[in-house]
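Anyone have tokens for Tfp pilus assembly protein PilF? Sequence:
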Amino acid sequence: MRAIGKLTLWSITLLLLFSSCQNDINQSEKVVLDETLGELSLENQDERSLAYLNSLLDEQGDRTAQNYYQRARIFLAQEQYQRSMEDIQKAIDKSPNEGKFYFVLGKLQYQKGLYKKAFEAIQKSEAFGYRHPDNFTIEGVGTYEEGNHELALTFLKQSDILHDNDSVTYLYLGLIYQEQNDTTQAMPMFRRAAQFKSLEAQAYGNMQLTYNSLRQPYKSLSLLENLDEQTRNNSEVICLQTAKALEMIGRRDSANVWYGKVLKLNPGQWDAQEKLGEYYYQRRDMEVAAEIYANAIKTNPEKALPYFKLGVIQEFYKANIDSAQSLFIKAAKRDTLDSSIQMAVRRIDKKVSRRNYFRDNPEALVRYRARQKAKQDSIQKAQQATQVVTEEE
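Reply: yep, here.
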């Protein structure tokens, strides 16, 4: 079960980019601009180096592949990803057989979430003889996000060997072992990843998920003691897993507080929507329940349940059978096997048909109401007679 949302992937991406950029810049590869600047290490780039490259490329017309490559690396380190992409593409156009150019391209595509293209770029960099430890990290994370977890495991194991202490590698190895139900290997990886502040929340959240899956909610909750309040309250995965652990031990009201925190962080989180919607539905707080289900329809339109629940609210609490019919039909399209939904469709169809018939035949409606009144009067008389007999006895 994946517990990394879009925001988490973004933070991991930034971390990997910065770490890989730093690793890429080593003592054996320095930027030699000219004799006046001498050797300029990218680890200490400043405006002077960028200004000099701008002068070479834009003013002096020295538009070599190497100059575009060096400026692309600077832009990458400065998080100017679009400008970096433009320069590295120009470098590749001028010199299409340089492996290090494709390495930078791969990192940029990875940053954009284009994992398949990033993988292909890294493969090209290796084909042209460029080897770097971060190749395995990018390939591992990229193939994981593409759904090939078996191949990802191979790359990430190699990344773990080549890196002394790489947080992203630890986290993704933990995720793969977690999916394999291998908790003995997953938990140590998450603990290692948790040592890095940037991945602390994701790592602890996944440790909680593991304990919850093992039906050990108290261990899950005990992990919160290691986190500060800001980390606890601003991590979707921690809030969600804390809510689930509290629900396991019967603390439903407390769980709802944490489900509410989840929706503040991610209004479209389905698990929290489902739990809170059902909670307020059971409490007959239909206004709140309806609001939750309406939002669920917007953010998770493929789910049948919110259409069905909102349809019930419209039918019985809002007396809006047209709206209810529309909602039930949409629910039935999304889940053709749920018997409750199918029964609701048949029921509401009968109500709408009867309403339409009486609307077109007002005299029939008068007769129907008269029969209903006579039936009700008969029931009341029977109840009164029963009550008299009971009192006499």
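Confidence is low (pLDDT under 50) at residues 21-45.
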